[in-house]
Structures are given as structure tokens and as C-alpha cells.
Specification:
The chain is an all-beta fold. The chain has one helix at 170-174; strands at residues 22-23, 72-77, 86-88, 91-98, 101-108, 114-121, 139-141, 144-148, 153-158, 164-169, 188-190, 193-196, 206-210, 216-220, 231-235, 238-244, 248-252, 259-264, 279-281, 284-289, 294-300, 305-311, 323-325, 328-333, 341-346, 352-356, 362-367, 370-375, 379-384, 392-397, 408-410, 413-417, 421-426. A hairpin with a 2-residue loop joins strand 27 and strand 28. The chain is globular. The protein starts with 21 loop residues before the first strand and ends with a strand.
């Protein structure tokens, strides 16, 4: 199949699809309870932050800023890619492409000075011309950095020194068929395991690797890989790892890969994607996709899902993951190329509380009662997180289109990037 024939169907889908996850086996039981980790609660060690849902525990942040945006502490020229920065302690990890190499770089989080760099050759070329850099965000856990490149190179580095611990070539090891936009899913750390929606054949749809040495521990399903990233929680007395694969939503037992439940949720046409990460809300999960698929809120049981509501009119997200705050979901409804709409949706009913046109797509962080939003056009927007109305507090153009990488918020500093520049802003009052 020639992927170029499908080009009209796609937006600049370039996922920060994310990466990452320092969530130990005991992680969190419910949306807003942070996991117990060795990292501090002001770290941003993975895609979507410490609790893998776009929610930050930080307070005392700016409640407005001027037309140029918050104060800039430092910036740095970077290579191509849609991988978001992550921060643990005084270290920021950046994953980008420079020339013919994918580069993992460690910087001083406060000042941007380089600490170490690890690079390896890549020949990846996006078949639809949507960018040749890595999509997946690094994962930092217990002194190790894990990255997943656009060609499926899974890498583990020492956080302190930047030396290689182990690596795997997933495309070769599991005979993965070519996707539209390369490998973009975010791995999940669960106890001693590193879990990946590999999309391999012969039962290797999802694979658990030993995070210490990269060896396969178990594999499960025949699901193709999506651009969504998995999440984990203890619900109804059992541990669930939830994947939104190309096929739909599936829950596995992390101990052995046994399928707890699976539900088909994908478009009828092949030229489509599942990309948004599932949003866990205590004993409920919200999944969303575009291409006529729609959104679903379901109650998670030990071995089944019970649908609460579903439709294709409320919050059908193309590839960005919604965030939750005080009974409401905030996200971008609709296809990117058609002009997505920012919406606030009541969780329990699926009712749209308000909407704002003209944003396109973007990413969001919930912090200190506000939504910090970065649009695909590089606008940094501060909104009150309220269902009452669209309440804009500040807006400034700070990056260049296209912005696909998710932001990071750690120790009062906000980090964001486009394809040429990484910026650190001071958000402390």
C-alpha cells in the first residue's frame, strides 16, 4: 500500500505521542493521587507529567503575563522532533534529531547548560512529509532514561552519565509493519517492566520488557500499534495497564500480560489513527478518537468495561489528549486539518459547557486552578479552569508552527519547544 494516497486524510499528526512513565507497581489509585516515586512531586519525568494525565501539583504560579509571554529564563536551538522535554531534579532530558542522528541530550534544567549527549544514526524519512524527528517523549525512572525512536529503536541510558545500558531494535525484533508516521507511542514503566504497544505479529502487539536489561518478559494481543500511550491504575481491587491500541481499548494484567478486557474502538477506514492517551478518573476511563469514531466514558471493572456514555458530537480528539479538572474535561474536538475547537465538557453527562473556535489543536496542563495551553501555532494561553465560560487570562505567541511536543512544568519553570527552539519560562509569581 502506498501511504501517500492517504495524505488528504491526515493532519500534521505528529505525535508527542508520547513517552514515558515513572509509575511504580504501587502507582496511583485514581486521577489526582500522585504516585510514590523517588522523584519529587515537582518533577515532570514522563509524558503528561507525574501522574500521566497533564495535571501538575504546583501552586504559586503566574496568573497572567504580557504580550511577549512569561519571563524567559533561557532558550536553546534544537533539532527536529515532536518529543516533549522531561525534568527530574536538576536535569532536563531532550530527545531530538540533528542531521542524520537521533540525539538524547541532558541539560541543566535551571540554566540550559549541557551535561551530556548520546547520539546514534537514523535514516527515518516520514512517508507523508510530516517530520523526520522522534515523536516519543523520554521516560525517566530510578536513574535511567528510556527513549523510543521514530524507527523503533528502544534505548536505555544512565541518567547521571549518559552511557548506554541496553538497546533494542523493535522493528527488526518483532517484524513491525510500517505505519503512517513512524513509531510514536510512549512506553510505560510499571514496577520492573517497561511496557510498549509494539504492534508486532505472533502475539507481540504489546510487549513487556525487563527495564533493567531490555529482555522480553511477556507479550500479549495481536493489536497493531497506535500513537496513543498506555496508563496504569489499581481499580476494582486489581492492577490494570490500559492501552488504546490501533484496535481499541485493552486492559492487561501487568504480572503476566493476561487480557482482562478488550473493546473495539477505531474508525472504519484504514486511513485513521488512535492517538489520544486514555484519561483515567478513579474507576472510569475516557477514550477519544476522530475519523467518525467518537468518545466514550466507561466504568472499569475487574474484567470488563461498562459504558456510561459515548458519542461523536462531544469531544472527538484527533490526537491531543484531553485533561480533567473538577468534573470537566478540556480538549480539542475535531480533525486538525478542519480546524479543531477547544471545548469544556461535563464528564458525567458528556454535555458541552462551552467552546472556543480558532485554536486548532494543542496541548494542556492543569496547574494552580488554570489551564496552561500551547497551540499548534505556538500561542501560549492561560485560561481559568472553569465550566462557566471561556475565561482567558493571558495569551502570547512564543513558538513557531507546528508545535506538536507537549510541555513540561517543573519547579515553577515551564518548558516548551518547536522544531528549532527549546524555551524555559519562569512561571513563579
Amino acid at each position: 500500500m502506498n501511504p501517500r494516497r492517504w495524505a488528504p486524510f491526515f493532519a500534521v499528526l505528529i505525535f508527542t505521542a508520547a513517552t514515558s512513565a515513572p509509575q511504580p507497581a504501587r502507582a496511583w489509585d485514581g486521577l489526582l493521587r500522585a504516585p510514590v516515586t523517588k522523584e519529587t512531586n515537582t518533577d515532570w519525568p514522563q509524558f503528561l507529567g507525574p501522574t500521566r494525565n497533564g495535571v501538575s501539583p504546583e501552586t504559586g504560579l503566574l496568573q497572567t503575563w504580557g504580550e511577549k509571554g512569561p519571563p524567559v529564563l533561557w532558550d536553546k536551538e534544537v533539532g527536529e522532533g515532536y518529543s516533549g522535554p522531561v525534568v527530574v531534579g536538576d536535569r532536563l532530558i531532550l530527545f531530538h534529531r540533528v542531521g542524520a542522528e537521533e540525539v538524547v541530550e541532558c541539560l541543566d534544567a535551571a540554566g540550559g547548560k549541557p551535561k551530556w549527549k548520546y547520539a546514534y544514526a537514523t535514516a527515518y524519512r516520514d512517508a507523508l512529509g510530516k517530520g523526520d524527528g522522534p515523536r516519543s517523549t523520554p521516560v525517566v525512572s530510578e536513574g535511567r532514561v528510556y527513549t523510543l525512536g521514530a524507527e523503533g529503536g528502544l534505548l536505555c541510558l544512565d541518567l547521571e552519565k549518559g552511557t548506554k545500558v541496553w538497546s533494542r531494535a523493535l522493528v527488526n525484533d518483532y517484524k513491525i509493519k510500517q505505519s503512517y508516521f513512524g513509531v510514536a507511542t510512549t512506553p510505560l514503566i510499571e514496577g520492573d517492566l517497561l511496557l510498549v504497544n509494539v504492534g508486532g505479529g505472533k502475539g507481540a502487539g504489546i510487549v513487556a520488557f525487563n527495564k533493567a536489561d531490555g529482555k522480553e518478559v511477556w507479550k500479549a494481543t495481536d493489536h497493531d500499534a497506535s500513537y496513543s500511550s498506555p496508563v496504569a491504575a489499581t481499580i476494582d481491587g486489581v492492577r490494570h495497564v490500559l492501552f488504546f491500541t490501533r484496535e481499541g481499548i485493552v486492559s492487561l494484567d501487568p504480572a503476566n500480560g493476561a487480557v482482562r478486557f478488550s473493546k473495539h474502538w477505531r474508525a472504519k477506514i484504514d486511513a485513521s489513527v488512535n492517538a489520544a492517551t486514555p484519561v483515567l478518573l478513579d474507576d472510569q476511563v475516557f477514550v477519544t478518537a476522530s475519523y467518525g469514531t467518537g468518545a466514550m466514558l466507561a466504568k472499569v471493572k475487574k474484567d470488563k468495561l461498562e459504558e456510561v456514555w459515548s458519542n461523536d458530537e462531544t469531544l472527538s480528539c484527533h490526537f491531543d489528549t484531553p485533561v480533567y479538572h473538577d468534573g470537566c474535561l478540556y480538549g480539542f474536538d475535531g480533525r486538525e486539518e478542519a480546524g479543531a475547537v477547544l471545548r469544556c465538557v461535563e464528564l458525567k453527562s458528556g454535555k458541552v459547557k462551552w467552546e472556543k473556535k480558532g485554536f486548532g489543536t494543542g496541548s494542556m496542563i492543569v496547574a494552580d486552578g488554570n489551564l496552561i495551553l500551547m497551540t499548534e501555532n505556538g500561542e501560549l494561553v492561560l485560561l481559568a479552569a472553569t465550566p462557566e465560560k471561556y475565561d482567558e487570562k493571558a495569551k502570547a505567541t512564543v513558538l513557531r508552527n507546528p508545535v506538536r511536543a507537549y510541555m513540561a512544568l517543573a519547579n515553577g519553570r515551564l518548558y516548551g519547544r518547536d522544531n528549532k527552539k527549546l524555551v524555559c519560562w519562569d512561571l513563579k509569581k
